[in-house]
């Protein structure tokens, strides 16, 4: 699509937003209903597109792409009327008789740049958040998952309002042109390198944006756990989608003693999952393209291959691979792996593991496999990460409501609102702010503005104002009397 066409699409969306249609909550719910129907009626097509792009197993494509998206939609529909309600805000003595609240309002026209590793979920789930918050949206799916992108482009106009919601396709050149347009918000999921480009483009228009970037997810594992159960959970999280998951375990930190116990358990679990020859397993995906395949092969040179290591360039196949004798300065420890390679770094104990985690960029998530509460608390208190999952991997993404509410909040501007009344007591309290200024008025205002526990509920109705006015006057008079201020 040419730059001129991008401009037309953005303008159409902006005109639609100015028309006010997306501010209507019933309209938003209708669009969510339509998107849900799109997923249900075309689940097989969506699943097949993902399988063609990534050779993703049918169960992974169905559960972690379509069903994950459907759960997002269901949650948004169940909660939208509550989320759009004004949120109560604290009052001070000056605003005690007034209405104070925070109102969520849409930004306007938002741009969502999807990712290739979960091409349905990571394109349409952010769009669900944008719709729920009342925005018009332009979606650009990743060109690295072309079948999924083309299918989204085909389906969305059939189900969603064609003026409010648009899908555009293209590679790096087209994305560069698209980013020259002015948006009200940009959401991008992907690599740090591209994230820097998106941020730079957003800065030209002072556009707020969310960058959900990859990182090295560390794992701590000690000998207090059931080793086989821990490995089943850990390696499931590592090898779904052939390791191409942004919150997949990236490297394991453990003592040498634990490594001796965990390697046989890992070998057993990998055989249980994928058989003697994982290449023939229908349950193991493939690396997205040859460029990433070659990148991963170069990382396999670090350390010693303890399990796996087989590969086939013709199908971008790499077996689930466990690598030992890895050093912190090896290339495999300097970048997000994003593939079926799992290095083990041995440490002396918890303190060294924490030091290693803190020496790197903050991860999207941290996995802790331990039954020791002191160990768990030590990691929670002394590391920083986007999320934490204890004694499992990736399952934290299924926490009901938490990510969905944050998605609504991400695409909402939080507007503080004060509605003042004309009650004489309020005006009397506020007179001290008017010129001519004086030291006594300044002292009086400082006492009024001082943060105190709320004296009245944040939402006092008008009847409450009249009924409570006399009581409030007495309370204020007493407070000011004991504060030494002679005003009444």
TrEMBL record:
This is Aldehyde dehydrogenase. One of its GO terms (cellular component) is cytoplasm. Keywords: Membrane, NAD, Oxidoreductase, Transmembrane, Transmembrane helix. The active site is at 212, 246. The chain crosses the membrane at residues 462-483. One of its GO terms (molecular function) is aldehyde dehydrogenase (NAD+) activity. The keyword Oxidoreductase applies. One of its GO terms (biological process) is aldehyde metabolic process. Signal peptide: none annotated. It comes from the Eukaryota. It comes from Oedothorax gibbosus. InterPro entries: Ald_DH/histidinol_DH, Ald_DH_C, Ald_DH_CS_CYS, Ald_DH_N, Aldehyde_DH_dom, Aldehyde_DH_NAD(P). Pfam families: Aldedh (PF00171). Residues 3-395 form the Aldehyde dehydrogenase domain. Belongs to the aldehyde dehydrogenase family.
């Amino acid at each position: 699509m040419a730059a001129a066409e991008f401009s037309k699409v953005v303008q159409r969306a902006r005109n639609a937003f100015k028309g006010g249609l997306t501010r209507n909550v019933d309209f938003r719910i209708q669009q969510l209903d339509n998107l849900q129907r799109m997923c249900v009626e075309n689940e097989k097509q969506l699943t097949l597109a993902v399988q063609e792009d990534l050779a993703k197993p049918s169960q992974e494509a169905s559960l972690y792409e379509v069903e994950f998206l459907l759960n997002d939609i269901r949650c948004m529909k169940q909660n939208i009327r509550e989320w759009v309600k004004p949120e109560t805000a604290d009052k001070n003595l000056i605003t005690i008789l007034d209405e104070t609240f925070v109102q969520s309002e849409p930004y306007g026209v938002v741009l969502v740049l999807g990712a290739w590793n979960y091409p349905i979920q990571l394109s349409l789930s952010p769009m669900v958040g944008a719709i729920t918050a009342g925005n018009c949206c332009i979606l650009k799916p990743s060109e690295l998952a072309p079948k999924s992108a083309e299918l989204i482009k085909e389906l969305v106009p059939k189900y969603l309002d064609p003026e409010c919601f648009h899908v555009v396709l293209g590679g790096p050149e087209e994305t560069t042109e698209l980013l020259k347009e002015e948006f009200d918000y940009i959401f991008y999921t992907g690599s740090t390198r591209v994230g820097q480009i998106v941020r730079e483009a957003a800065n030209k228009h002072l556009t707020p944006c969310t960058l959900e970037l990859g990182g090295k997810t560390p794992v701590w594992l000690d000998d207090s756990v059931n080793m086989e159960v821990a490995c089943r959970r850990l390696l499931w999280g590592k090898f779904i989608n052939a390791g191409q998951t942004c919150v997949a375990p990236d490297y394991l930190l453990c003592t040498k003693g634990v490594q001796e116990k965990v390697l046989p358990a890992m070998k057993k679990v990998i055989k249980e999952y994928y058989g003697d020859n994982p290449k023939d397993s229908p349950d193991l995906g493939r690396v997205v393209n040859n460029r990433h395949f070659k990148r991963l092969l170069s990382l396999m040179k670090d350390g010693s291959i303890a399990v796996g290591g087989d590969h086939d360039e013709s199908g971008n196949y790499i077996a689930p691979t466990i690598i030992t004798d890895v050093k912190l300065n090896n290339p495999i420890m300097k970048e997000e792996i994003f593939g079926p390679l799992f290095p083990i770094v041995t440490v002396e104990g918890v303190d060294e593991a924490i030091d290693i985690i803190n020496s790197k960029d903050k991860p999207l998530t941290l996995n802790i496999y331990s039954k020791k509460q002191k160990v768990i608390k030590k990691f929670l208190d002394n590391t920083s990460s986007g999320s934490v999952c204890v004694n499992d991997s990736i399952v934290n993404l299924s926490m009901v409501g938490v990510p969905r509410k944050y998605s609504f909040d991400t695409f909402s501007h939080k507007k503080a609102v004060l509605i003042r009344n004309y009650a004489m007591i309020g005006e009397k309290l506020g007179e001290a702010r008017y010129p001519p200024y004086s030291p006594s008025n300044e002292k009086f205002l400082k006492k009024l503005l001082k943060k105190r526990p709320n004296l009245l509920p944040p939402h006092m109705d008008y009847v409450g104002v009249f009924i409570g006015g006399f009581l409030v006057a007495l309370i204020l008079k007493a407070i000011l009397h004991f504060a030494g201020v002679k005003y009444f």
